[in-house]
Amino acid sequence: MRRFLATWTLFAAALPAALSCGTRSGPRPDVAGTWRAVIQSPGGELPFTLRLDQPVTRDPREGRLAAVVVNGEEVLPIDTARIDGDKVILRFEQYDSEISARLSEDRMTMTGTWVRQAGRRRPVMVFTASRGEAPRFGLPVVASAGIDGDITGSWDVLFTDDEGTSPARGEFRQQGERLLGTFLTPTGDYRFLEGDYRAGHLRLSCFDGGHAFLFHAVMDADGMTGDFWSRSSYHATWTARRAAAGSTLPDPYATTTLKNPSGRLRFSFPDLAGRMVSSSDAMFAGKVVLVDVFGSWCPNCNDQAPVLAGLYRAYHEQGLEIVGLAYEMTGDRARDAIFVGKYAERHGVVWPLLLAGTSDKSEASQTLPDLSGVLAFPTLIFIGRDGRVAAIHTGFEGPGTGRHFDELKARYDQLVKSLL
Fold first, then answer.
1. What is the pLDDT of residues 150-194, one digit of tens each?
2. How many CB atoms lie within 10 A of CB 311?
3. What is the per-residue pLDDT for 41?
4. How far lies 125's CA from each of 68, 138, 191, 350, in Å?
């Protein structure tokens, strides 16, 4: 978070200097500022805040932009942003996705598409944006107004889709009509959500270049009832009640279990250069090993990576090793190696990353038969110096979850030190 804020501060600091450089040739710099951006979701408008600036470059004709996405407390730099005539292109490298939009003649609006990698497909969703500060959401439908009030606090949530019902925990902070928060689930969290609560209506959204979440709900005397849409195809309904005293989600350390009676986790996969790396290799013998089951496309995995990097820096010299098992979108090894490599570069990963399979959980489960299954990305396996599995943590509570994130980091640290 501090890195994101610092990055945006540098972008903002460059603006006065850019404006003092006099007349420019090349791209017009008048796209700078705040934009209300919208992905057209099956549930309606999925809004987020987009900020653009044109930094000083030696050659202004390059058309490079500085750009960030804002979701509540998160300020997320966009990897590559540029303007080419009347076209704005925003590239999110880690998710292999791109927004491409044309500016109106007055440069006050833009219209285009968001294209992303999803398994072996590349779905397209409509993107629009209007310039200037504006509420994240418009006015709610008054005709179905719910019960007003302050919904700050914890809520017991049930999500229901075609596969059944699953529990979650809603954590909300209301500031007037503005609403911030997230949902924690047994397999991860929905990161930084921002929206509002007005006239008994909850609306929350998040867009990070790879994931687009939209939540609606109406409050009645019994609690909240609503809908959840993710990207272009997923829909679930949900209900929420004030969290009962002592209510908790399933224990993430008991969700995934070890089937191998020897207590060991076996794996053997190629690294990014094609060399086989196995659990029996000498580099892991007598070491504490963290096996990270992850995907470069996974938002919770990207949140977890800096935590693992911190553990590696702190304890590698004392005998800690980490190995990442990457489960990627397409199964094309050449393509997947490129994006896992970008993930490593982004997070400063220096431990081995192996290409283990695809992001399909049932297929992933077959590659690790010693586990009861791969239920979530990430899943982190703690192995002691004796080579036996000491703990398995399913999912991740990221920075958007506040104190839960702090507690998770402390628990990881405690576990590693106890094994060393």
1. 999 999 999 999 999 999 999 999 999 999 999 999 999 999 999
2. 19
3. 95
4. 20, 20, 21, 36
Burial label for 392, CB within 10 Å (0-12, 13-18, 19+), is buried
Spatial contact of 391 and 253, defined as CB atoms under 8 Å apart:
yes
How do residues 309-329 score in pLDDT, each as one tens digit? Answer: 999 999 999 999 999 999 998
Opening angle at CA 95, ends 361 and 107, nearest 5: 145
- In which residue are the tokens 């919770």 written? 300
Six-digit token pair at 305?
């990576």
252 pLDDT more than 90: yes
pLDDT at residue 197 greater than cutoff 90: yes
User: What whole-number distance in Å separates Cα of residue 113 and Cα of residue 98?
Assistant: 8
**pLDDT, tens only, 63-84:** 889 999 999 999 999 999 999 8
Yes or no: say if 341 and 258 are a contact pair by the CB < 8 Å rule.
no
Cβ–Cβ under 8 Å, residues 101 and 129: yes
Percent of the chain whose pLDDT exceeds 70: 89
Coil, strand, or helix at residue 116? coil
Q: How far apart are CA 81 and CA 53, in angstroms?
A: 10
Answer whether 147-242 and 268-419 agree in fold. Answer: no
Q: Write down the CATH number for the domain with range 268-419.
A: 3.40.30.10
Orientation of helix 299-315 relative to helix 333-347, angle to 10°: 60
For 2-131, give the CATH class.
mainly beta
**CATH code of the domain occupying 147-242:** 2.40.128.120
Question: 358 is written with which tokens?
Answer: 């695809």
C-alpha span between 136 and 129 (Å, rounded)? 12
- From the list 233, 193, 368, the residue with the least C-alpha distance to 294 is 368
Q: What is the pTM of this model?
A: 0.88
- The domain limits of the chain are 2-131, 147-242, 268-419
pLDDT tens for residues 322-352? 999 999 988 899 999 999 999 999 999 999 9
Checking if the pLDDT of 382 tops 90, the result is: yes
d(CA 177, CA 150): 9
* Token pair listed for 362: 């049932």
| Dihedral class, residue 58 (left if φ above 0, else alpha if ψ from -120 to 50, else beta) | alpha
Residue-level pLDDT at 16? 40
